[in-house]
Amino acid sequence: MSSLCLQRLQEERKKWRKDHPYGFFAKPTKKTDGSMNLQKWEAGIPGRDGTLWKNGLYPLTIEYPDDYPSKPPKVKFPAGFYHPNVYPSGTICLSILNEDQDWRPAITLKQLLLGVQDLLDSPNPNSPAQEPAWRAFSKNIKEYERKVSEQALRYTK
Amino acid sequence: MDINHIVSLIETFNNSHDSKVINDIQNVLQQHQKSELGIDLANALLSQENGSTNVKYFGALTYTVQLTTCLHTESQLWSIFQGNLVHLTRMMFLFTSNPAAASNLLVTITKLMSNLSLIFLTINSDAIGADSNKIPAWRNPVNTCIKLLQHCNESNLFEWRTDNSEIAERLVRTCLNEDVPYTELIGNISSSAPLNKLLLLFTKVIVEDMNKYQSKKSSLSNVYEMVHNHLYISTMAILNFNLENMMSSGATSEVFPCITSWIHYISMARNVSAHGTMDLTEMFNNMINVMCMASNGSQEFPYSDEVISIFDDLFSNDPTLMSFEVRAKLEAIFLGVSRHSMNTSNDWMLAYMNHLVTNELYDDLKVLASCVVDFLQISNLDVCNKLFTNIHENTGDQSLEDYIRVLLQLTNFPLIPILQETYSSKMIEFWLDLAEGYGNLPQEALKADANEIAENMFNQVVQIYLPKISLMNKQKIMEEDDDQSLLHEFDDFRSATQDLMEILWTILGHSKLTIVLIRGVGQADTNNVDLYQVEAMSFLLAKLLDGVNFSQSPFISDAIGENHLIDNLLFLLQTGCKQKEHSKTAQVLKLDFVKATCNLLGVMATYFHVDSKPLGPIVESLFECLETSRQYNPIEYSIKMELQLNRTISLICENCRKELIPFLPNFIQVLRSIMRPESPVSHFTREKFVKSIGNIIQMCVSEGPEAQANHISNMVDMIGGLIQTTDAKSDMLSLLACLSELGSGLSQLPNDDEFIENNPMYLAQLPAFQAYWLQDPMRVKDKVMHLVQYALSKYGTDPEFVEVSCLIIGKAITLPDDIPHFLRYPLSEMMSFYMTCISNCDYASGLPYIEYQLEKIVAGFKDQLTSHEFDEMFKQFFLNYYSSHISSDPDLIQSMVSWVNSVLEAKPSLALKSEYWTQFIVPEFLKYLQAKEKFTISSTTKFWMKTLNNRRYTQEDTEIINALFQSMGKQLVYQTMFSLHHAQRSDVPQYAELIRTLFAKYPMPMKDWLYELLPQITGKEAIFHERFINKLTVTRASRATLSTVTEWWLDCNGLPNLQ
């Protein structure tokens, strides 16, 4: 890991601890020797109140590449996560996470996670990443809502 | 330009409520502002003797519009500059003469100052090296103002017009860069409080604009230099004079916003310019003196809150702006001790805190806490080194001990956290950093007694936080204030404390932290238990015990077994679920009790491998709460409790299958109760409960397969009985889901080797169970099949029923062959079921679920399937519906292609030798390359890639494909390139991958075909495509191919390249 990457990740951790939105969590994972792995984080995003996603706390992993912040981190839900813009592997399709689109080195962890929370209830049908959720969202909203609600129960806070 | 008409328009614009009128007037006024007469208009409006505030402000705003959008020549700039200075001087004179009467001028004065600030930036940005026609550099706007004002008086006020060249031209030029000595400056501001106020405002506006424009303007380095050499000196003189005279009657509060703006400016400038660094020591020292001012016998602290608020901002953003010496002084004032051996006293701090607490000024106390903790963070590393290492030989141990003692006292501030004090929550950050700093120190640098110091100190930290995170405090917050944000803040504080404990564990270990908490939860018997304390400790323990291997940690397991931990946890659970309370506060706390218990019991699930005795009371308690939580709690809370309880039951069942076998009858009894139609328990809970029972039944192997089958059969009968008697569609769907969950519960093996090692009996009996289920003497499979068919006979067109039914019948397809399962249906029976299902359901909505099962069948039965069976499946599930449904629906096309893809992945020869391969699949799938839907394109390109390049091909398969490519390769390339050319930007990557495969497999013909085909497809000559084709021939990597193809696509479509 470059010193720029390390410095930035330490800064991100500090900033997050000092100021993060309510109900979210994010922290570096531990390596097998117990030391902190700043390049891989675990995080949780609460579903926004008043949406189908409420009551759920959705787990994420965030992997920072060696050349972060020039390149964006890879943010993933668990494999099989039901959402039109989440690939079957769990990888999230969001412009601010895409190096070729809206990623900017100044984007903070807080902005990223708020962006993902926003995406939960505002899927982008023009960027489908998985077929079942996209199809249901586009053509059978009842089924989509049922599956999202079931998923919220599985990830209950 | 009719000025009276414009004045009238401005007044109407500001007073009207009709949006159309406002819009129309705005358009007209903007045209005037941007016209060639804009500067004249501004002058005219500002000169209106009796003009209203609106009119005068609009005049100043017109100058802004001219400055920002219509500035073309140096003379224009000069006119605007002169005008602003003339009008500003006149208005400043009016204001300083009679501030009360002229107070409405302030808004216009501020706007004129802002215009001048922009002019200051513009002139000085490119002043150096400029020609003689240019406006000279403007060194110090404050001095210019003072000098101009000295020439303005009551008798000549009417002469201050822009058309009076004596003033606007000669005087302005003379005063522009005239120096004002320090004594003169101080004389001016000390004799006129209004002037003092205006000058503070002016210098503040200038640096705020510097901050605003620094990212937008590229060449500000000259401006930074000008500020550093001139404006900074005047401003510091004014600020320090004000701070030194704060107790006098003329003191102005304007000084603090000005200080804030200057700190922000210097903080920014010192990072971008060599002239950005400016010493603020004198100002900070003066601020500290002002902060410590007290009057009325230490009853009043007139400026402390304002100074502390500025320091708070400083320490959280750019603490090193304050020099080390000033910080050392402040440390002594804040803490009463210093790490730098100075004479210290914090009498002021104690008096101030006492004042805040006595007068319940908790918001100010929070700002003070934030300021102090941010301040402490600056020196965290230094504290860490001095405490634990030999690096600083001469550190006085006593002063350091005192220092830590004060920090611990601050952490333990004797008020309610979050509601009244935030020291405790803010200090978490400090202790976290200190603990991490300690953990990162090299062993060789540590003092001999470093461990002892750390353990002692961090033990005290733990003891401080335990009562702080108690829900008793949450209760007080809720009783005191209905503010949701305070509750959120308290919950966050508790989470942060959990994180702190995790870090402290690395220092204190299980013996000094985990065990202490376990004993804390379990020390009292249930007659004498402090539930709040049990909850707080359980809350922290859940974090510390997560992931602990209890069988390898006997000292933890022993500690759990030695006391009343489980009893007290269950007492907490029962209180949470079953105590009837009516207030919202009590309900919230009860839910927190349930959450804490459930989390801890879930984390401890593997502990019951070591000692299964507590399982009985635990399961009983969980069941009781599950069944009765709705009797004692309003629905919104009972739903949440039910989810928590259910999750814990699932976790315990998953982990303690074998240990729970004796309790199976209890589980069944509870299941019967919650499955009753009138039971309020949710469908989700019922389904997951059935799965948990499935987990236990899976381990009922000691008495042979028949005994286990009996359990399964009884479960199926019970669910079946309910299916046949229910009328409600949603209930029936849930009952079907219960059957599916039962199947899941019996197919899940804990996926670790430990399970296999610990359950040799299970392994040894696998063949007997397999043989049993092959025979299925109790006809369980048939019973399930009938139940599914019964449900489908009622609701077979509903896709939700199709989905669950398919899941039940296909439950065992993907299980390894040697794992017995009661739902392992023969292939023929499954095929027959799915065929009936497809013919009865709504094809479009049911196909995706059936197709998913067909994919699993191909993967699971590939060795048994023949091309003939492939043909049959393809015909029955797809071809028969092609013209009526599939051909017009891209989703169904995608389902069909996906299924063929699954065959190509599992056993390609099934498809290649099919009679439909050349008749239907190849020609039709070629057309689908032109599809417009992302997933159809995706599955089709995947089909062609799998067809061209497949590792599972036999020699014979490869020959078939080579022959195929020879006959239709050019057509495939045409379709691919044609489709790519007409695709959306976001679909380009999918075609790029196919092109890469084509080039890798058939490089030679590809090149020739592209030269021939691309001009036909795009209408552009071959030479246009030459670079693209040549690049493709040498490109192999996926990303590089994508970039090449995208570039070509952009060129062809006349779009600019992103690079």
From TrEMBL, chain A:
Its main location: nucleus. It comes from Kluyveromyces lactis (strain ATCC 8585 / CBS 2359 / DSM 70799 / NBRC 1267 / NRRL Y-1140 / WM37) (Yeast). Keywords: ATP-binding, Nucleotide-binding, Nucleus, Transferase, Ubl conjugation pathway. PROSITE patterns: UBC_1 (PS00183), UBC_2 (PS50127). Belongs to the ubiquitin-conjugating enzyme family. The keyword Coiled coil does not apply. InterPro entries: Ub_conjugating_enzyme, UBC, UBQ-conjugating_AS, UBQ-conjugating_enzyme/RWD. The active site is at residue 93. Residues 4-157 form the UBC core domain. The keyword Membrane does not apply. This is SUMO-conjugating enzyme UBC9.
From TrEMBL, chain B:
Gene3D superfamilies: Leucine-rich Repeat Variant. Keywords: Nucleus, Transport. GO terms for biological process: protein import into nucleus. It is found in: Nucleus. It comes from the Eukaryota. One of its GO terms (cellular component) is nucleus. InterPro entries: ARM-like, ARM-type_fold, Importin_beta-like_NTR. PANTHER family: IMPORTIN-13, TRANSPORTIN 3 AND IMPORTIN 13. Belongs to the importin beta family. This is KLLA0A04884p.
